[in-house]
Specification:
The chain is mainly β. The protein contains no helices and 18 strands. The chain is elongated, with a radius of gyration of 24 Å.
């Protein structure tokens, strides 16, 4: 099961007290702000709110460095979770939205598109050491944080599946090729070869599948 990033919604900055300010051009000021809960902000302000480039730190370990608009993370920035996981990319109204990179604490990494805080669109997911899929990669489409649509899953040993995914599983039409060149091509359902043809490394048909059952081809 792939790890999913947090919702991505880091929300509006907590209101605090502006403790230091210096004027800048275009109506911006540089300043520092602190809250009674230990949160701190250092950066640009406009119209009495966080606007422009800044750094926001939480006492629980999270940190954001990037752009703000009207007190909300908006634009390009980097956000660190309290466990050390990190997202770098585009924010839209406080949420991960657009092109970005999310790196989990164990080193697993997703590079691609986000929508409303979730992996959504085209992306590449690389599994890290310690995961049961260590060294494997997926390149393809995501929907609401799951592999869905067209994609390519490559295992560390060189085996590869090219085809359709649904809810994170091989589902639809696809071809699974082993490292020796043997393969199964056809329909998949819930990660299981369903209806199709299996070939040996020389692409000779050796058996066929129908509704999940395999039948050997007689010589």
């Amino acid at each position: 099961m792939e790890k999913e990033s947090s919702s991505g919604k880091t929300g509006p900055a907590t209101k605090g007290i502006l403790t230091k300010a210096t004027s800048k051009a275009a109506g911006l000021i540089n300043g520092e702000m602190g809250t009674s809960t230990g949160e701190r902000y250092s950066g640009e302000f406009a119209n009495g709110d966080l606007n422009g480039q800044g750094t926001y730190q939480w006492p629980t370990g999270q940190q954001y460095i990037g752009e703000y608009r009207n007190g909300i993370k908006h634009g390009q920035g980097t956000y660190w979770e309290s466990d050390g996981s990190q997202y770098s990319g585009t924010f839209n109204n406080g949420m991960k939205d657009g092109q970005g990179t999310y790196i989990w604490l164990d080193g697993s990494k997703y590079v691609g598109e986000f929508t409303q805080g979730k992996m959504h669109g085209h992306g590449t997911y690389t599994y890290a050491e310690g995961d049961k899929f260590f060294g494997d990669t997926y390149v393809g489409e995501y929907v609401n944080g799951e592999k869905q649509g067209k994609g390519i899953f490559t295992w560390l040993d060189g085996s590869k599946y090219v085809g359709d995914f649904l809810h994170g599983k091989k589902h639809g039409n696809g071809t699974y090729t082993r490292r020796d060149g043997s393969r199964f091509a056809g329909e998949w359902r819930n990660d299981m070869a369903w209806t199709g043809v299996e070939y040996d490394p020389k692409l000779k048909i050796i058996r066929k599948a129908k509704e999940g059952r395999f039948f050997h081809i007689k010589e």
